[in-house]
Amino acid sequence: MKYRIAKGVFDILPKDPDPKGNWRESHLWQHVESQMAAIAKEFGFHEIRTPIFETTELFQRSIGSTTDIVTKEMYTFHDKGGRMLTLRPEGTAPVMRAFIEKSLDQISSIQKVFYIVPMFRYERQQAGRYRQHHQFGVEAIGSDAPAQDVEVIDLLYSLFQRLGLQGLTLQLNSIGNLDSRKKYRHELKHSLHPYFDELSPESQERYHTNPLRILDSKNPHDKKLLLEAPTILDFLDDEAKGHFEEVRHLLDLIEIPYVINSNLVRGLDYYTKTVFEITSEQLGAQNSLGGGGRYNGLIKELGGPDLPAFGFGAGLERIIQTMLAQKVSLPPPQHSQLFLIPLGDSAKEACFKLASQLRKEHIPTEMDLSGKKLKSAMRYADTIGARYVAVVGENELESKQLELKEMASGKVEKVSFSSLVKRLKNG
Fold first, then answer.
1. Residues 6 or more apart in contact with residue 329 via CB below 8 angstroms
2. Which CATH number fits domain 338-425: 3.20.20.80, 3.40.50.800, 3.30.1360.10, 3.30.1360.40?
3. Model confidence, pTM
4. What is the pLDDT of residue 282?
């Protein structure tokens, strides 16, 4: 029986034989992940790792029982003890659970963490969306200052610039507090009620369960109906208005351009005040590279202290695909500096020892372990992209010298065993 990968997931390979699968090559992921970790640390964030599954109730309570994630997309199961568990569909709730359970507020009133982890959602596969996907997220806990909002937005925007992405747009909105959203929800339903039969089936369902999600609709006719609807910005109280004005001022101060999108609400119930998305014109309808917002009541809702927080999530799949589509300059995969081809048993031992010594000096080295014929071994060295090749036989062992052949140019030079490390470190 030939086993095949499950639907909606993918392998990340050293080299994908499918030309369309070049975004699944591991050296690209390593590059992007290293940039994410580096910039997070520059902004003062530290890594956190939570389990791949949590109790189902955590996500039901934090995300919202009427959201698409909870009602349609979660991978939920009973374990052998009868407990209901869910594979992590998003990163904020597990971080908040860890923060509360470990009393991290007792260590410091401000906690800034990041993660790069897989997420799981049962949804229809489409460009940049998979049933196992990978997300870079940050959570800043403990500050309600508008400057905290902007610092986090700056981190994500700066990451995309550092990765070389083009055509970026920061979309910004404020959804106020619970009271302002309650008033707005009532007015939104009132304005859409005469047109209920014209709404898409999905928006008709949301009308009863979560009307703010209608603002997220991609249906063209829904969008047309929303043009005449009130905006949530008209329902902000003075505190939320002042917060939003300061966010805009600070974005102007550090020269991050933005557009106000009053229909931006994000898909999770825990958001308050500032919400944002960064999009790319390269992606069409599914154009979001990452986004998030403020969620001041979530920690208290989950049984912790009443502390404010702000964060975002960004999908690695979509980021890497966009980088390739925009032909961003990317580092090549790392190849071996030297490939050793031993001829005979004595040479095998000598090469094995030499390879070990070179690796201890952080020089990427491989050797032929399979006893291939010389021509086949040279072909393999070319396939793996080795920079230099050295054939080691009795003459080389006696003279303590190698003939170092540069594969790209064919240039050959003699190098002694004793000076090999210095020669390779100098390129």
1. 164
2. 3.40.50.800
3. 0.89
4. 65
